[in-house]
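name: query_chain
kind: protein
chains: 1
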Amino acid sequence: MTAKYDVVALGNAIMDVIAQVDDAFLVSHGIPKARMNMIDEARATYLYEALPKTRIETSGGSAGNTIAGLRSLGANAAFLGKVADDAVGAAYINDMKRIGADYFGAPLKGGPATARSMIAVTPDGERSMNTYLGASTEFSASDVDSRAIAAGEWLYLEGYLFDKPAAKTAFVHASEVAQTSGRKVALTLSDLFCVDRHRDSFIHLIRTHVDLVFANETELLALYQTSNVDAALSAIRTDSQLAAITRSEKGSVIINGSDTWVQPAAPVARVVDATGAGDQYAAGFLYGVTHGLSWSDSARLGHVAAGEVISHVGPRPAVSLKRLAIDAGLKIGSGAEAPS
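structure:
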């Protein structure tokens, strides 16, 4: 069956609140640097008030950011997630529709509020994320829209969502729907926090239900509990047919069976905010995979997308990634382009 969507993503629906601060702010408010920190609603409210009033509020969530990047490249995409029946949730759904992505998921009534992430960005570009997951954690197998997943060439799973038992069940169910429909499954490990909490479950999922793994070097090392990069790459080669491993300024390593490609990172004048770098790399790579690009050009497109997002504050593209890709000499399709 011809796919309606290039990618269908399943992840946390989160509204991001982003502000530039100094390191003293992190210390005075007890924020661990450069990590994902899980917080409750009271802490989210406290940090929201503490952040500078110059903060930016934008729809985020790792998989949602990837969908925004795919749309900026011209891909057809959809998102499955859980928001609350509140104003923030309505804004999130409207943002998805505005960029041209289909949204699937009934809002939660009478439960936790829509998820929010308070993101403190220091002058070195590092982001310290303080996330209240709220309604997003209520996603369960009953929220999996089988028709939407069957309509996507790839299903993209966000590791951040893989926390509650119900979400784990939803991941497996969604993956099985994709596999039964002849579709492919990609998983992003998302964060060191996620790997430390779910190492064994991630490895099992990768071995049994996943065709493509996205991870950065730190996450990969943690997954296999080693400090040896070559050993970790060898391990993921055994567990997954295809893997895309990002290494910051060192670029990325693509593994496909016994073959390996190393792609340099795109040059960036200055790193302003690292939020969304991995999400946009995944967007570029997935676009390449679904549009007939080589592994090297798919990785190159990933770096172009990541380079754009780290050059400004915010986790989603500020300009057309399609135009940047064409300017970089990459031959990408003529699909409908989302508004920048």
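note: Residues 81 and 105 are 6 Å apart (CA to CA).
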